[in-house]
Amino acid sequence: HEIVGVLFALCYDPDPGVSEKARQSLIALPDSVLDPTLGADVHPGVLAFLAERFREDVAPLETIALNSATSDETIISLAGLPYPAVIEIVSENQTRLLRCPRILEALGQNQLTSQAALDRIVQFLGLAREDSDAAKASGSHAQEAEQSLGLDSADGLPRELLEDAQAADPK
Q1: Which residue(s) pair with 158 in the sheet?
Q2: What is the torsional sign of CA 70, 34, 62, 54?
Q3: Do 72 and 59 contact (CB within 8 A), yes or no?
Q4: Residues 45-75: pLDDT tens digits?
Q5: Any alpha helices (H) in the chain, and if so which ranges?
Q6: Contact criterion met (CB below 8 Å) for 37 and 64
Q7: Can you give the pLDDT of all 171 residues of the chain as single tens digits?
Q8: Within a 10 A sphere around the Cβ of 73, how many other Cβ atoms?
Q9: DSSP state, 158?
Q10: How far is 71 from 93, CA to CA, in rounded Å?
């Protein structure tokens, strides 16, 4: 993991020659060196870089999605990819779903997210279903998911959460 971490840090060297060479070296590392890093407790930036490097390879992306050191931003990116196995891993991570509503938005915008996964998330989060005919007629998976999940499109938080917070605020 150390060589990966050092090369990643050098990618941000102020000298463009050093940073570019480090980036090229990091990309060129063999999978046998990179694979152990995917599930390790490493800097989230390293995992984000590797998620981009392996963007076309579902197996490493699954490992990155399962890694608790992976940033929520990277998980949001993974939730938008066309890999059902990665989508399933992301949709089952209840801790992340509670912590970061934007993950739910990304899943709702992905055409490959199953309705069963969305229903499971809605049930887990305790969100009220709002099955409107307008949403179904629109044909937009993102809009339908947003409405069925009770999301307030202005800020991506469930309306119930906002209402509860406002009711609890003594001001």
Answers
A1: 151
A2: positive
A3: no
A4: 999 999 999 999 999 999 999 999 999 999 9
A5: 2-10, 16-28, 31-38, 44-53, 58-66, 72-79, 84-91, 94-99, 101-109, 115-125, 133-138, 141-148, 159-168
A6: no
A7: 899 999 999 999 999 999 999 999 999 999 999 999 999 999 999 999 999 999 999 999 999 999 999 999 999 999 999 999 999 999 999 999 999 989 999 999 999 999 999 999 988 888 744 543 333 433 444 445 445 454 444 344 445 544 544 454 444
A8: 14
A9: B
A10: 13
Residues ≥6 apart with Cβ < 8 Å to 164:
none
CA dihedral 55, 56, 62, 65 (to 10 degrees): 20
d(CA 37, CA 64): 9
87 and 110 in contact (C-beta within 8 Å)? Answer: yes
For 42-51, b/e burial (b = at least 16 CB within 10 A) is beebbbbbbb
Give per-residue pLDDT as tens, 108-123: 999 999 999 999 998 8
- For residue 98, the one-letter residue type is L
